[in-house]
Amino acid sequence: MSDLLAEIAHVQREAELLHSAQAVQGAIRRLAGRITGTLKDSNPLVLCVMNGGLVPTGWLLPMLSFPLQLDYIHATRYRGEIRGRDLEWRVRPSMPVKARTILLIDDIFDQGVTLTHIVDDCCKQGALQVFTAVLVRKQRTSNGLQPDFIGLDAPDRYLFGCGLDYKNYLRNLPAIYAMPDDLHSTGD
């Protein structure tokens, strides 16, 4: 455990600050405004995508001053690692999504694999419409799903902070950091 904690401390020390805490909070306010403008009259069911979506959802909810219900979903590809694998469903929503407007809130849009599976699952369960909100979108070419609401863009690097993790650590940081490429290549 001490080796892992030393690695975490090293990664945090060497990381590059991409978006300050103030920039993140500004993005959250803008997201809340756009979400409110679109969903305020739809009585949405908000689904926090765990674990990464916990921090952005917690920041967004107090700014969404319209009727909504909250639940969560847990589907993951990373399982504490820095490389994604097959999607593993851990928890599906406890509230019915049928005939509801759904807002999925997640930390990051990377390749879109997880979010696409979750959107498809909501549609199969009969959701009226599904909207997606992410705090960060990596700058990549994608031919598939694109989030409806995006807080910040970031380069295609390994990111952590504000819900994004490094080996299940550093989600609690109030800003968004990029791990140096030389550390990322040896971190797998």
Account of the 3D structure:
The structure is a single chain. It contains five helices and nine strands. It is of the alpha/beta class and 188 residues long. The strands form two sheets. A six-stranded mixed sheet has the order 4-3-2-5-6-7. The protein has a three-stranded antiparallel sheet with strand order 1-9-8. The protein has helices spanning 2-14, 21-39, 54-60, 113-124, 181-186; strands spanning 16-19, 45-50, 69-76, 88-91, 101-109, 129-138, 149-154, 159-160, 176-178. It has a single domain (2-186), classed as Rossmann fold (3-Layer(aba) Sandwich).
Give me the secondary-structure topology:
Elements lengths: L1 H13 L1 E4 L1 H19 L5 E6 L3 H7 L8 E8 L11 E4 L9 E9 L3 H12 L4 E10 L10 E6 L4 E2 L15 E3 L2 H6 L2
Parallel strand pairs: 2-3, 2-5, 5-6, 6-7
Antiparallel strand pairs: 1-9, 3-4, 8-9
Please give a handful of descriptors for the protein shown.
six-stranded mixed beta sheet; globular; about 190 residues; alpha/beta; Rossmann fold; 5 helices
Short description:
The chain has 188 residues and is α/β, with parallel strands linked by helices.
**Low-pLDDT residue spans:** none
CATH architecture: 3-Layer(aba) Sandwich
By DSSP, the count of extended strands is: 9
Instruction: State the assembly state of the protein chains.
Output: single chain
Estimated helix fraction: 25-40%
Gross morphology: globular
Task: Give the N-to-C terminal Cα separation.
Answer: 17 Å
Number of DSSP helices?
5
CATH C-level category: Alpha Beta
Strand order of the largest sheet: 4-3-2-5-6-7
Measured by DSSP, the beta-strand proportion falls in: 25-35%
Secondary-structure element series = HEHEHEEEHEEEEH
Would you tell me which CATH topology applies?
Rossmann fold
* Derived structural class: alpha/beta
Mean pLDDT: 91
Query: Compute the gyration radius: what is it?
Result: 16 Å
The biggest beta sheet reads: 6 strands, mixed
Number of domains: 1
